[in-house]
Amino acid sequence: MTIGYVFDEIFLAHQAPGPVWHPECPERLTAVLDALESGGLTSRMSRVAAREATREELVAVHNAAYVDQLERLLARSAGYIDPDTYFNESTRDAAWRAAGASAELATRVARAELDAGIALVRPPGHHATRERSMGFCLLNNVAVAARALQAAGLAQRIAILDWDVHHGNGTEDIFWDDPDVLYVSIHESPCYPGTGPVTASGGPKAPGTNVNVPLPPGMGDAEYLAVFDRVIAPAWRWFAPDFMLVSAGYDAWMRDPLAEMKVSRAGFASLAQRAFDLAGRSRFAAVLEGGYDRLALADMVTDLARILLGDAVPGVHHDEPPHPACTEAIDFALHMHAARWAAPK
Ligand SMILES: [Zn+2]
Q1: What is the CATH number for 201?
Q2: What kind and span of H or E run contains 91?
Q3: How far, in Å, from the CA of 255 to the mean position of ligand 1?
Q4: Sheet strands (E) in 179-338
Q5: CA-based angle 286:289:295, to the nearest 5?
Q6: pLDDT (average), residues 174-193
């Protein structure tokens, strides 16, 4: 397998202004890179050079007025866009490069120069809507990658699997009424940003292409894997996409400081293995989102890299039934979607 990764030093320069500690910090990526390096993985992967997203790529996802306004705002030295979302003098370049890097990596995969890849980027993207920055996110990296593939004619039907613990309200907003992009999210509810009910299933032109599976706090491996098998896999088979993008956040990990889920490292390995297998072990690109315990994040991204490289990574072997609250959530999602999945095309 030829596996790629993309990283740029500028992603480490984006950091919260002043002496205040912020969970979305450069050390997250440093820890990931150190772990990949010491595990001998960077030498087994092909590094893709990051580039800035073009204006054309950005306005295919965001309002042109928003992109211009954001660029003007980021030209100021540093500050906060909302209580969560900071910027400093490097943020403009980091954000433009994170979006461009994600698009570039996905493009290389779609051109079959790589079998799969991981975009190690900051700032994250999945909360950035068409016209709003929020939740540490400025530009929606995974959405820019999806649109870049379509614009280049490299993929037509794209599935975005979002296993970050938070609902990717931005990605949902951007592709809400797009029949060519399937967005599937497992997320904690109630939790930030408060969106993502199971009933939100896509706009009038794109019914069923938005699949939300909100789960109550405390859910772990058995629940995430049950959602994968009973909702994500059938949704994928129904939609028959030709490319898989993953919003790979690791904040559903059991001791993440920002959420209350209980997924283990092995649980994430099983989830990643199933997703990669579902994609046919090619035409797969993961884009980093959240994950705020930096050592756990490093372990889990390392596992993802090993899985893409074809190494055997310890996963979940027990076969516990999911919590009844999860079964209820799955049944509700099936109530919303299963008839469509079963209908002849
Ligand atoms: Zn998150």
Answers
A1: 3.40.800.20
A2: helix 91-110
A3: 13
A4: 181-188, 210-215, 243-248, 284-288
A5: 95
A6: 98
Residue 344: is its pLDDT beyond 80? no
Question: b vs e for 300-332, b when ≥16 Cβ sit within 10 Å of the residue's Cβ?
Answer: bbbbbbbbbbeeebebbeeeeebbeebeebbeb
Q: 102 or 317, which is more confident?
A: 102
Tell me which of 126, 127, 167, 187 is the catalytic residue. Answer: 127
| Domain boundaries, position 112 | 3-342
Assess contact for 254 and 221: CB atoms under 8 A.
no
The candidate with the shortest Cα–Cα distance to 285, out of 33, 35, 108, 57, is: 108
Average pLDDT of every residue of the chain: 97
pLDDT given at position 345: 66
200, 175 contact by CB (below 8 A):
no
Q: How confident is the model at residue 258 (pLDDT cuts 50, 70, 90)?
A: very high
Q: Of 200, 222, 214, 47, which Cα lies nearest the Cα of 117?
A: 47
Distance 138 CA to ligand 1 centre (A): 14
Distance 17 CA to ligand 1 centre (A): 21
Helix (H/G/I), strand (E/B), else coil: 136: coil
- How far does the centroid of ligand 1 lie from the alpha carbon of residue 165, in Å? 5
The 10s digit of each residue's pLDDT in 137-176 is 999 999 999 999 999 999 999 999 999 999 999 999 999 9
Is 127 labeled as catalytic in the residue annotation? yes
CA atoms lying within 13 Å on the CB side of residue 238: 25
CB 95 within 8 A of CB 14: yes
What CA–CA distance (Å, rounded) separates 252 from 164? 7
Do the Cβ atoms of 231 and 332 come closer than 8 Å? no
| DSSP H helix total and E strand total for the chain | 12, 10
- CB atoms near residue 46 (< 10 Å): 14
Q: How far is the CA of 289 from the centre of ligand 1 (A)?
A: 7
Region 307-316: what's the mean pLDDT?
A: 97
What is the number of domains present in the chain?
Answer: 1
pLDDT of residue 1: 83
Q: Rounded mean pLDDT of 8-19?
A: 96
